[in-house]
Design brief:
The chain contains 2 helices and 8 strands, in the order βαββββαβββ. The protein is of the alpha+beta class.
Length: 118
């Protein structure tokens, strides 16, 4: 069974939002990425919360990701159920997802066999 492993949130102020989740809910920082390490990854030990710079995009939930046994099978099943194809593979530049689809309302759904840091 697929398991939700991350949720990505866009914000104009990643450090401020990350501090909110650390102080309010006890989440721990597990990684940073980006040229200036502006993307902050938090975890509760089960699910990661990626706090990403909005960069002109609307603030709020951006996408979420599933850990699956087989990315290609999960992608096929999602497309057969009404998703649209995103990409079969993503660059290996620090991203945790391996591929993605868009659900029937257009939300990006990342797919990974490797999971995310926790």
């Amino acid at each position: 069974m697929a398991k939700i492993r991350h949720i990505a949130v866009l914000t104009k102020d990643p450090p401020k939002l990350a501090e909110f989740y650390r102080s309010s809910f006890g989440m721990k920082e597990v990684a940073r990425s980006g040229k200036q390490r502006e993307a902050i990854y938090l975890s509760d030990g089960y699910i990661n919360l990626a706090i990403l710079p909005a960069l002109g995009r609307p603030e709020g939930i951006y996408h979420f990701g599933f850990e699956v046994e087989n990315v290609q099978q999960a992608m096929r099943a999602a497309i057969e159920a009404g998703a649209t194809k995103g990409t079969d593979s993503l660059p290996k530049d620090g991203r945790f997802a391996e591929a993605f689809v868009r659900d029937p309302v257009g939300t990006r759904v990342d797919l990974s066999e490797q999971g995310w840091k926790s």
